[in-house]
Amino acid sequence: MTVRKGKKLTISIQEHMAIDVCPGPIRPIRQISAYFPRLSPTGEPLSPNPAASLSAHSPGGGACGVGSGGLLSPLLSAPRGGALSLASSVDTSVDIQSSDSDDCTALGTLEFELHYEKATSSLHCTILRAKGLKPMDFNGLSDPYVKLHLLPGACKANKLKTKIVRNSLNPVWNETLTYVGITEEDMHRKTLRLSVCDEDKLTHNEFIGESRVALRRVKPDQTKRFYTCLEHPPPLPSPTAMGAALRGISCYLREWENEQLQCLEERGRILISLQFLPPPTEGDGEGQRGGLYVGVQRCAHLAAMDVNGFSDPYVKTYLKPDVKKKSKHKTAVIKKTLNPEFNEEFFYEISLSELVRKTLEVTVWDYDLGRSNDFIGGVCLSCQSQGDALRHWMDCLRNNGQKLERWHVLTNELPQSTGQE
Description:
alpha+beta; Immunoglobulin-like
C-alpha cells in the first residue's frame, strides 16, 4: 500500500478486517470431546488426537506433541501427578501417595485409614485429621466432627460419630470407629460415606463436606490410608427445572432406583453361635447334657421401628417342627437401641439324628407396650437353607463339640410357622 505525500492515510475495509480478525495464524477450535477422557478396555486413557497420543508414548512425548501443531488433550496437557484416571473420575478418594490439585480443596481435606478384619467381620475406620476446613462460625473457625454411614443402608442404624474438636480448621482426631457384622459381600457392594460437620449448640449443625469410598478398594486384613478432598453432596434433580420428557425419564429412573434399594433392603444382622454336644457316655461328663446350644450374641444395624428412630429389640428362637410347643426361648428386651448385645445361650436336648430333620428359626422383634410387637427380621437354619445359613448349620452338625459363630443377614419375610405375637 502506497500513500502520496500530503494525503490522508486511508485503510480499506478489507485491510481493516484482515488486521483485526487475523492477527496471527489460525488455530483449530477445540471440540467438546477433547474435554472428556476416553478410556480403553485396558483402562489406559486415549487421546482424541492420534498425533498427541503417539507423542505421549514416545520418548520425547512432550516436545513432539507441541511441535506437531496438534491440539493436546486435557489428559496429556494436565500437570504431572494430576492426570485423570478411571478411579479418580468415579471415586472421589485417592491414596495418600498421590497428589491433588489445589482447586478441589475449597472445603478442606480429610485423612483416614480403613482396615477390614475378616476373622471378626469388622471394619475399623480410623479418622486421623482434617486440613484447611471451611470456616463455619463467626470467629472464622469451626467445631468439626466426622459422621460415618454405610450406603446403601438405614442411616440411623449404621451411623458412627467422632468426638468434636473445638475452634479448629485443622482438627486431629486419631479416633477409631468400628462396624461389626460386615461380610465380604458388603465389602464388594457397599460404600462408606464420611461427612464432616460443624457443631452448633444453638442452631442445627452445619454440613461442611463429604467424601465417599467404595469398600471394594480395601483388601482384607490390610490397612489402607486415604487422603481425600471434601466435596458437596450430589445435587438432587429439580422437577421444575426439567422439561416434560426429562421429567418422565427422571421419574422412571427414580422408581427403578427405589426398586433396586428395596431388593437390597436389610433388616439388620445377628450374630449366632451353634454348638452340638453328643450325649455323654457312662462315667464321662457328669452333669452335662447332650444337645444343641444356641447362643444369641448381638445384633447390628437393626431397622428402626419406633417413632424415635430406635427399637426395643429382643430375640426368639424356635426348633421346628415343635409338636409340644416347648422349643420357644426368648431373650431380654434391650431398650432404645439398634445395636443390642444379648450374650444369652439356650439349650435344646436333642440327638444328632433328630437335629438333622429340624429347622432353627431365629426372629428379632420390637417390643411395644399395649399393642402387638413389631417383627424386625429373621433367619432360618436347616439342611434346606441356602448360603451362609446352610454352611453354618452343616458345620455345626459335622463338628461336634465345637462352638461356631457367624453373622447372618435378617430377612424381612416373617416365617409362616412363627406368626405375629
